[in-house]
Write a structure and sequence with these properties.
Chain lengths: ~120, ~140
Amino acid sequence: MNEPFESIICIVNRGFTDLVMTAARQAGARGGTVISARGTGSPDVEKFFGVAVTPEKEIVIILVPRSIRDKVLLAVNEGAGMDTKGQGIAFAIPVSDTVGLQSPDPEDNETSADGQKADEE
Amino acid sequence: MAKDYDRTHRIHPLLFVTVIVNEGQGESIADIFEANEAYACYLSHGRGTASNDFYEVTGSGDRRKTVVHSIIREDRWPIVKKTLEERFAVSQMAKGIAYSVKITAVMAVSIYKMLSNNRFFEKPLPKKEKKGLFHRGKKQ
């Protein structure tokens, strides 16, 4: 069963969503939506420093065709991963169905039609 | 008993639905979910990531969004999807995107009952049909 879209969820430090979107766009993503979030810091770290660590985070939601999912994830890891100031983590979840999105281009459809091949690549 | 719930009752698969719309449209989307027996909706503020030029060209000039999360029964999704498609087609302002993700597990039967909102029509299966959707083919 090949769904055409996947949702990429990227959690980054607040103020660094541009890093994520720049990387994602370069890999073929069209746009995303940012929502605010709050990280729940490690209790050990809180004990060590003696202060409550409540890092401010932002979550970027990007819907992408499955065929470019890996490319976008790699790009986000390079542009906004743990080695950058954004300290982002990203993962993809399969989407059952979508509304309001254009279908992937016919070329993309061709690659997603044999999605196994695209995934393996 | 709660642990036999999936054998004695019909299990309705659940979907986690996310809708992203322009700010101010969230309540209308929540109404759609409410009309389709969703137990609850969670609305949060969001921000579009398109460039300023894009917003100027499209004339919206506003990148503020509302993100609506809700959980519905899978049998309700075709109705919700059609309603959302009609809603998004009303105007440029009403445009949005939505997607659904299958929920694979919940932490308790009580939570499932709450999320599926089946409290009004919940009935045990007749004795002959006590199989359950997740029954793995073992003979009882």
